Amino acid sequence: MPPKEPRLLVAELAKVLTPRLDAIAAAMSELTYENIDFYRSMVVGPEDLHASMRLNVGHTLAHLTDHTSSGVDLIGPTETGRKRALQNAPLPEVLRAYRISFRYFWEQLLDVAREMGGEAPDALLDCASHIWELADVYSSALTDAYRETCAERMVETDRRRSALVSELIDGPSLSSDTVWEVARMLDFPFQGRFLVVAAEVRVSGQPPLPGLDRRLRALDVGHAWRAQPGSEIGVLSCPARRPVEEILEAVRAVATGRVGVSPLYERLDQTSRALRYAQVAEQSLAADSAAVRQLDDTPLTELVMNNLETTQRAVQRILGGVLSLPEEDRTTLLATARGWLEAHGSAAEAGRRLFCHQNTVRYRMHRLEEFLRGPLDDPKIVAELSMALDAVGTFPMLLEPNQPSVPPRSA
Fold first, then answer.
1. Could you say which DSSP state residue 5 is in?
2. Which terminal CB of the chain, N or C, has fewer other CB atoms within 10 Å?
3. Which H or E run includes 223?
């Protein structure tokens, strides 16, 4: 009698094992629980694990039983990979369970081949590469399904968190109860220490702050983002023990364009107001710069920020003649005026701060006075000058003839 083709003999071995399917799956489950700590946590329950083992072994036996089969049914590993991803099971542990189980399956085939005797052991060895290739194919299918599911979950999570950020920044119509719920879903406290970040997107499709997620995790800073045309908006939840400057330094380290940061605020229902500060801070930076700016929460800042156009008209009226001077003259006069005001009108003290003679300070201030709407011994004129200098110090774009567009109150 001529020898049987090896695949035919292996098909007979598979047929012998098919009635033992439940027992094989149970033994694989037991081995998994014995050898892998994660599974003993019972995140994957006994019934779930047994069903998964049974499904995968069943498809393997069906493939081996049909000696003419060339295709492999991957529904088992695909379903397992997807389910384990949803259960947050570590992929290395899932693959380890696969290896342990397949080794047990191979041992069962080998035992049956030895029991059958004759040509069966040699036939099994002849088909060993094909059978172990099944293990690689199954593992690859499981891995692909696992990673695809994780990617889908990340997208869904990002969308959900983005929607929650939108609820925060599109206020102020939110009720406190709604904000409390948003805080819970973001895993943020309702009351704590928060920053809003507005980051300019220079190149579509590329993150404006690459690598920031890793840096914020290292600082224990919670964060959630919303992407929109031209920028990304982030809400940062800052630990009490972490200095704000340390967080700003992490942002500076990865900034690829203009980045505005709000003042620190304490309640999530103040996010909409904080966003306005962050957006104006971003817009106040030079157009081609890659820099980070945080505005201070002062009455003047809020006043100017809420009506930049009116403020610019006021600045032009107060400093118009000075602003028309060549840049070097304008810069010198404005710097002298700041020093004089900080010195409470003392030319001698201003000279020490500016590293020039007090007579130089007096000369410059007399020259500046020619451009103002009255003499500097008039308190109203001094108040106007102080306001204008504070405004252009905080918002340099007010010095420009055409002020850049101002972000809307909510985006």
1. P
2. N
3. strand 222-228
DSSP 307: T
Count the neighbouring beta carbons within 10 Å of the beta carbon of residue 167: 19
Give the whole-angstrom CA distance, residue 185 versus residue 162: 12
The values of phi and psi at residue 174, to 5°, are: -70, 140
Bond preceding residue 172 cis, omega within 30 of 0:
yes
For 182, the 3-state DSSP assignment is helix
pLDDT in tens, 299-358: 767 777 767 777 888 888 888 788 888 889 988 999 999 999 999 999 999 999 999 999
Three-state DSSP class for residue 127: coil
> 334 with 315: CB under 8 angstroms?
no
**How many whole angstroms separate alpha carbon 394 and alpha carbon 294?**
10
Contact 221, 236 (CB under 8 A): yes
Q: pLDDT digits over 67-124, tens only? A: 777 677 888 889 999 999 888 889 999 999 989 999 999 999 889 889 888 888 888 8
Q: Which two tokens stand for residue 173?
A: 């119509």
Rg (CA), the chain: 35
Instruction: Give CA 371 to chain center in angstroms.
Output: 50
Could you say which DSSP state residue 240 is in?
T
